[in-house]
Design a protein that fits this description.
With 617 residues, the protein is of the alpha/beta class. The protein is built from 20 helices and 29 strands. The protein has three domains: 275 residues, Queuine tRNA-ribosyltransferase-like (TIM Barrel, Alpha-Beta Barrel), CATH 3.20.20; 148 residues, 3-Layer(aba) Sandwich (Rossmann fold), CATH 3.40.50; 123 residues, PUA domain (Archaeosine Trna-guanine Transglycosylase, Chain: A, domain 4). The strands form seven sheets. Strands 5-4-9-8-7-6 form a six-stranded parallel β-sheet, sandwiched between helices. It has a six-stranded mixed β-sheet with strand order 24-29-27-26-23-25. It has a five-stranded mixed β-sheet with strand order 15-14-13-17-18, with helices on both faces. Bound molecules: zinc ion (ZN). The site of zinc ion has 5 residues, from helix 8.
Amino acid sequence: MLEVGFRDGLAKVVTWEPQAKLRLRTPAVLFLASGRIPLFSEAEALVLSKGAPLVEAGGVPVLSDGESEQSDIPEGSSCPFYLEEFVKDTLGPLGKDGRFMVVGPRPPEKVPDTVDVVIAGNIAGMLGDPKRLVPYLTALRRAAGYSRLIYAPNAGEPSHIALLAYLGVDLFGSIPLAFAARQGYLLFTDGKYPAAEAWKAGLCHCPACTARSKEKVDPAAQPEADYKWALLHNNHIALQETKTVRHAISMSGIRELVEARVRSEPWLVASLRELDLRHYDTVERYMPITKPFLIATSRESLHRPEVARFQWRVREWYARPPTARILLLLPCSARKPYSRSPTHRAISMAVEACKAPHLIHKVVVTSPLGIVPMDLEQFYPANCYDIAVTGDWDTPEIKMIKEGLDLLVKKGQYDGVIAYIGGMTFINEILEDHKRLKILTPQDPRRKEDLETLTSALDGMIEAIGPVENNGKGSPDRRRRGEDYAAFARFQFGPGAEALVDHVAFSNGHLKLFKDGKQTGTLNEERGMVGLTMDGGQIIKGLGRYQVEIEDFEPSGSVFAVGVKSATEEIRPGDEVVVIRKGDLAGVGVAVMSGPEMMERRKGLRGAAVELRHRHK
Ligand SMILES: [Zn+2]
């Protein structure tokens, strides 16, 4: 039985019950015990083989009956020992019904329905080689689907675990830990150190290292004692790291952890870049649409899938509010959403003071997102990203901002452009061809004189573009507010979803969306998304996106994966979806899984696909 508890891209926390009374949470290390590899009594899971006693230490899942023939560190460690036999003999008792499958250096075309665990025995030879490792693991994940576990028995060095979990590896082995110990290395999350030197420097206080300081060892037994100590240390650090990785996944922070961990070896950084730049689709399709934070601390942050997806939607789905005809470019603020920062509050007052604030389209120029229209400031990650701000811009950031701005200006067909940004002169060359352009470089965007200059520049631009037709209902400001949320809805659900909104209103502390007098949705500020009502669901149903079709049953609080008949491809965990039964709207709610994961509908797969908010009565 497998149940995914937390999803963070390809990394996930799964509760796995390979057999009765055996329950394990992944990512985890399956620690090998054999004649030459002492049993690690703190292990969460042991793989036993010949020479080792059959022990269930403290309720630890033991994945063997102890009768197999093979053990030991593989020669050269580049390939796991006799992998077929390992599965047959060591995991045999669990593998009889075909729940384990060994895959070779080429990912299989298809994985049989019964398989829970795919054993990738060739990973060790690919470590250090991003151009092989990353395509292999992403292709393997595509073939295996999301709901199976990938087990790499020859990978498990503490400094590799976070990245490999982010690449989709769920289960690790302890062979590399034993191999490093034999070679005299202590492994840490930031790399490896010769054991003797690390000991002299007093680098570690793990239980193994603490115990060693009290031990008296017979000099004749020293080499073996050193190996056992180094192995026990390596085991403890690897175990600790799997717990750190699980915690990071459950907190939606695996990417932040990975960006920190990959610094120890260039090939780890290169693998992350390879993944971001050439295998974006595989990661993005499982990446939640909203999270509580995004901390950008490295060059790699510019390319993380959450950022790339936001930029893709600005390019492909976003359309400016029709009334917003004058583009006003603004700096970002440390506080998010921007409108809560003192600088943006001061700027907003200066905009409100102009003759026609409803004509002004405020757009923030920033890193790592590039271009953020203020009408999207509540959408993740615009609503919470954090980045080191020094006013210095790197070449990749400049390129990214220029490209985003160029497209915005071309697509937006603005009647006028005003830039109110200091220290970003590189944007001027994108703007210089615009027929009505005013570049202001405030000393301090909150300074009174600068703000007054802004208001008069806006007034000048409003006059220059001439009279604007006003033929809609209600005040221009009220109409513009509706347009802003229509743009937001379109960004969330794609083109056509602007039909959800003709005006918005505040009541009971919530912003509500209306169309033709009916409430279609409510803005959920915490998630940064529109939650649909049944009336809103009818509109989204007509778009053909974000649809989950279920079998013919009456859904209650949740729709489970087994009840899903089909789901559209663009659904991501956390997305707002409509649930359809026999062609009719049956409910609206929040997707727990991505659309592709729902479509796997594998036997024995547990868990909710959609948590319903409203359902048809
Ligand atoms: Zn230690």
